[in-house]
């Protein structure tokens, strides 16, 4: 047996959802083996990686001067090539139980409107991290497969995948994308909106992790049945001392208005551009929400009110893309059909 096929025999092919906020890795015959934040803590003096993933996220906003916690992905694409390569290398090894000399075939989900330069950056990073072959697939298509939509049938399916850096809206029929739009407004933008709102209104400075906690706890896109509030801690920008504040869901909904509006607008535009026959299918089946941003409370109700269509949440919104990518990993014919050139 030649060496390469012997290595292939021992290695497991991988499907990766390389997200702005989180990276998920699916190993063939094993399922999801890695589910960690896309963050790397680097020592700026020695240029060594101190921590990756969940361990690095714990360090966000708490590092000494010589260690910086870096998010190498921005808006769904690679912002820091070298750090992404190291992060991928770490996740690939973790998926293979820290074995050396593994050269898996890798399928990676990317946003819909990604440029050729950005595609090449993803391919190169994966190859330098040890991949023998790299296939790129569109995240929206993968989310639809992962959500269990019948994408191979001649009927319209609409998916809205809201990740950390991008929102991908797509209408799919016969294993092809009829219409897709990717807007670089998603979960991270929501966190930033919360930070700016509290700075403007209360002169209170909070960190990324606190903003994310506020969004998950009291953030919403539609009025809630009962009011919610939360105590938060930050730094008073006027007096420079720590300060505690109570925020309500109404305030956070106001903070998120602009971001939510951009997502709603992307969905409406997709509906306007959809051929009438497929529109009729979508009216029956509705819109499927996936991705971490799709978990924002009341977003389904808001989209229902704006479009008049049924809106349902995928079963495991955070894992839809990687589950779909894992499924095409096991079906080479489908992979050839949906791979991005």
Provide a compact summary of the structure.
The chain is an alpha+beta fold and 341 residues long. The chain is built from twelve helices and 19 strands.
Decide which structural class fits the backbone: alpha+beta
- Please report the first level of CATH classification, the CATH class of the largest domain: Alpha Beta
Q: What's the main sheet like?
A: 6 strands, mixed
Mean pLDDT: 89
Fraction of helical residues: 40-55%
Please state the CA-atom Rg, rounded to the nearest Å: 21 Å
Amino-to-carboxy terminus distance? 31 Å
The CATH architecture assignment of the largest domain turns out to be: 2-Layer Sandwich
Number of helices: 12
Query: What is the fold-level CATH name, i.e. the topology of the largest domain?
Result: Nucleotidyltransferase, domain 5
Give a description of the structure.
- The longest helix is centred in the last third of the chain and has 25 residues, at 249-273.
- Helix 5 (139-146) crosses helix 11, helix 6 (187-202) packs across helix 7 (208-218) and helix 8 (249-273) packs across helix 10.
- This protein starts with a helix and ends with a strand.
- Mean pLDDT is 89; it is low at 6-11.
- The chain has 3 domains: 3-141 and 321-340, Nucleotidyltransferase, domain 5 (2-Layer Sandwich); 148-185 and 261-317, ATPase, nucleotide binding domain (Nucleotidyltransferase, domain 5); 187-255, ATPase, substrate binding domain, subdomain 4 (Actin, Chain A, domain 4, Alpha-Beta Complex), CATH 3.90.640.10.
- It has 12 helices and 19 strands.
- Strands 3-2-1-9-10-19 form a 6-stranded mixed beta sheet, with helices on both faces. It has a 5-stranded mixed beta sheet with strand order 13-12-11-17-18, with helices on both faces. The protein has a 3-stranded antiparallel beta sheet with strand order 5-4-6.
- The chain is α+β, with helices and mostly antiparallel strands and 341 residues long.
- Strand 12 and strand 13 (176-183) form a beta hairpin.
